[in-house]
Amino acid sequence: MSIVNTVSAVSAVSADSSQPNDELNPGLKSGLTHAAIGADGWCREARRYDSPNCDARPEGVAVELLVIHAISLPAGRFGGPHIADLFTNRVDFAVDPSFADLRGVTVSAHFLVRRDGAVLQFVSCNERAWHAGVSCFGGRDQCNDFSVGIEVEGSDHVAFSPAQYQSLAVLNLALGSRYPLAVLAGHEHIAPGRKTDPGSFFRWESLAESMLTFAEQSVSPPPAGGARLVVAHRLVAALCALINVNGRTRKK
Questions:
Q1: Residue 37 has pLDDT above 60, yes or no
Q2: Annotated catalytic residue 188
Q3: Which CATH architecture has domain 20-203?
Q4: What does the domain layout of the chain look like in residue ranges?
Q5: Which candidate among 5, 46, 84, 156 keeps its CA 20 to 30 Å from the CA of 20?
Q6: What is the pTM of this model?
Q7: Active-site residue among 45, 64, 127, 151?
Q8: Got the DSSP string for 35-75?
Q9: What is the torsion angle, in degrees rounded to the nearest 10, for the CA atoms of residue 226, residue 160, residue 127 and residue 92?
């Protein structure tokens, strides 16, 4: 299927630091333009900010699922260090009364995509981040075992930014080039009834279009460009399986 036809099909079904500092990554302000995942599971284009909330994946389990989340701390407010603090067990509970509910919570994600497209990485993709919780997809429980989790700064009630879709697209292509990803899903799909993110304001078709756009731009020089195009078609096909004819994601 051609790039144009694939996009049409989707539309039819429609470096360590003690503190993260996005100013150290000025090139990320409009979203990632390229990325690669190393053999160690780290993305060199992302701001590295190690989380202790991770462990080893079960032996022999392949990374096949990419899970998109949405997060804001405090709820509905963007910016600040609070998400990174949550993933590294440094929450200042005096900042907001709602943070009291986070006491004792130990969670993480592999990546965070901020509103401006800046990308932070907390856990090597070779390891298991603690992002999914009680979850099931395709008849398989414990989604953390076989997934990469990407948190996107946002909420169920606000549109996501173009820079975020751009960074997600580039990051997804990089992940798909390193791991045998076969499925993309939202947290709402792997934990239905318990989670609602990324929600109805997340446009899966925009993500698909962005992936194909960046894959097309990287066709030259071969063979890497052609390989990215194959990855893009594979991931977009997974999105086609996720989106129903009304343009709303269906639960599995």
A1: yes
A2: no
A3: 3-Layer(aba) Sandwich (3.40)
A4: 20-203
A5: 156
A6: 0.84
A7: 151
A8: --B-TTS-BTTSEE---S-EEEPPTT----EEEEEEE-SST
A9: 150
